[in-house]
Design brief:
By secondary structure, the chain is an alpha+beta fold. It is built from 11 helices and 33 strands. The radius of gyration is 26 Å and the shape is globular.
């Protein structure tokens, strides 16, 4: 079939401006729409899927697809009958990045951040073994920074440098750090390579880097990387100023702003599932049956476990790595900082706890803080970390992993038996998350947050086998993202909605039974507990919320309790 006509010849002696109704413009617009839909899909799309998503007539869609394939903008895979982006688009993308003007693209963002913060804003690149500042914007201040454009900083001791280092490939990072010693520039400079690597992993998970008095005493900064189309850092944007004007809390509150500035500079290239936007706050007054029981300011509160034996709520902060022990009656908690990203904490029948730190399953003794390694199932993927985890009613531990930078399809689902043996149960997940089992132990629920989907498997309690994965619920994007979950005694599934301000209860068929709004936008997980097991405890997050958003939701990062009137199921301990 012939290609669609993409231009219209104007009548002689007349000049017409093509409008939206011009056939050629319509074809062009529809072609771009098709490319955008294919680009947004995690895998190739079939003709019927494109037909449904575009709403175009069959004949029109068929002609446009054929034209896009002929022009090498789309490729057609005859094995599975799907359309994917083709090589010509990548050739164009390479040309764009070959000619990319970093300073020019960043200029409006530097000025915007300067006006927003009243601090110096810098643009830097990695040049050899140092960070070179290539642009800066300042406002008049009684105290000004001495060094500026053309000056250099140690990458391991500066916000911009750590933002770039964290997003290099592991191979490039290792090669760079192997070439020079970590010099003690100030009393707080990180000079231990293992500690620096842990900080860089934390930076990558947060999306921004913080430096407090590390390059120069009295100077602090927060920065985010500018990434190209391959997800590689080509520079960084940072807010830099005196530490008394940029205390730690303010640096973290500005983390979202530097991420947004970096994304705008690169046209949103290189980013994966690190969300910045939230849904509008639900209208109406706060519910009387929702209480803040542990006021806190966790960056990413997660992995709650209620211990009926201890009458305590255990939970973690993934991004300010710590294990918390909460007293929900007194409204207090104690914290044990841990050295690496931590996903969950679960009591062991033998005493102590099992946790996931980075890509390892570890034992933890809370009183002493002693940590032992139980299993290293993610040893072949050092760029991965564990996220959520729970135990089935045989005491086997199930845990999901994801790439630290949330790159797609890197996550896996693991099972750790009491004897210490690990089994890979499934793979190909984007952001592995909430888990749970039906009361009769015939169904297993597992969430991929980035794909907006909670899956359900057939489950065999005796053997620990799963089969027949299929979607249980796909959450519309305007309702937030499905995060942690728990299952009640009636077989209904309770799900926390990240960026959705709510917890939803789904019936066993996946239909919404009720929605409970919360006064914070980022609920992360939930668990039943309390004396009668009818209280739903909900952990929340404050990471990457702007100062204005935190002012609207100041309890972000706290633990909430919902009086449900419905009995929950106790989460089992680890049998190993």
């Amino acid at each position: 079939m012939g290609k669609p006509q993409l231009s219209v010849t104007a009548p002689e002696k007349e000049v017409e401006v093509e409008g939206p109704s011009t056939p050629g413009v319509q074809a062009l617009t529809r072609g771009i729409q098709i490319l955008d839909i294919v680009a947004s899909a995690p895998a190739g799309l079939r003709f019927t899927e494109l037909l449904e998503q575009t709403g175009m007539p069959k004949g029109t869609l068929h002609r446009l697809l054929q034209a896009l394939v002929e022009e090498r903008l789309l490729g057609f895979d005859g094995r599975n009958q799907t359309y994917r982006l083709a090589a010509r688009l990548f050739q164009w993308a390479h040309k764009v990045w070959d000619d990319f003007d970093l300073r020019g693209a960043a200029e409006p963002e530097l000025e915007r951040l300067r006006d927003l913060t009243g601090e110096a804003i810098r643009l830097g690149v990695l040049d050899g073994e140092s960070v070179l500042y290539i642009d800066q914007r300042e406002v008049p201040q009684p105290l000004r920074l001495n060094n500026g454009v053309g000056s250099r900083a140690a990458p391991y001791a500066s916000g911009l440098g750590k933002a770039i280092l964290a997003h290099l490939s592991l191979e490039k990072r290792r090669a760079l750090l192997a070439d020079f010693p970590l010099e003690q520039l100030t009393p707080t400079t990180i000079t231990n390579i293992d500690e620096l690597i842990r900080q860089l992993d934390l930076t990558k998970a947060r999306g921004y880097a913080v430096s407090v008095d590390e390059q120069n005493v009295g100077i602090s900064s927060v920065a985010a990387p500018v990434l190209n189309h391959r997800g590689e850092p080509i520079g960084a944007i940072g807010i830099i100023g005196p530490s008394f004007r940029l205390p730690v809390d303010r640096l973290h509150a500005l983390g979202r702003e530097v991420i947004e500035a970096a994304r705008r500079t690169s046209g949103n290239f290189g980013e994966f599932a690190m969300s910045l936007g939230i849904q509008p706050r639900p209208l109406g007054v706060d519910r009387a049956d929702v209480r803040c029981v542990i006021p806190a300011s966790t960056f990413l509160g997660e992995g709650p476990h209620w211990s009926a034996q201890d009458k305590k709520l255990y939970f973690v902060d993934i991004l300010a790595p710590a294990v918390h022990t909460g007293d929900t009656e007194k409204g207090t908690y104690t914290s044990l900082p841990v050295p690496e990203l931590v996903g969950f904490i679960i009591p062991r029948t033998r005493g102590g706890f099992v946790t996931a730190m980075h890509g390892e399953i570890r034992g933890l003794d809370l009183p002493s803080g002693s940590i032992t390694t139980i299993a290293r199932p993610e040893a072949d993927r050092p760029g991965n970390r564990f996220n959520d985890g729970k135990c089935d009613r045989k005491g086997r531990l199930w845990a999901g992993s994801l790439a630290i930078d949330t790159a797609p399809d890197q996550g896996r689902l693991w099972r750790l038996d009491a004897d210490g043996r690990t089994y890979e149960m499934d793979r190909g997940f984007h952001v592995a998350n909430g888990l749970g089992w039906s009361p009769d132990d015939t169904k297993f629920y597992f969430t991929d947050t980035a794909r907006q989907t909670i899956y359900v498997y057939d489950f065999d309690l005796e053997t620990g086998a799963i089969a027949n994965r299929r979607p249980f619920v796909t959450v519309p994007e305007n309702e937030g993202k499905p995060d942690g979950l728990t299952v009640d005694a009636e077989g209904f599934v309770w799900v926390a909605h990240w960026d959705g301000w709510c917890v939803t209860r789904y019936d066993p068929e996946g239909k919404v039974e009720r929605v409970i709004n919360l006064p914070v936008p980022r609920p992360t997980s939930c668990v039943f507990g309390g004396a009668d097991m009818q209280t739903l405890f909900v952990t929340t997050a404050r990471i990457r919320l702007s100062a204005a958003q935190l002012a609207d939701a100041p309890l972000s990062g706290s633990v909430f309790a919902i009086d449900t009137g419905i009995k929950g199921l106790a989460d089992p301990m680890f049998a190993g």
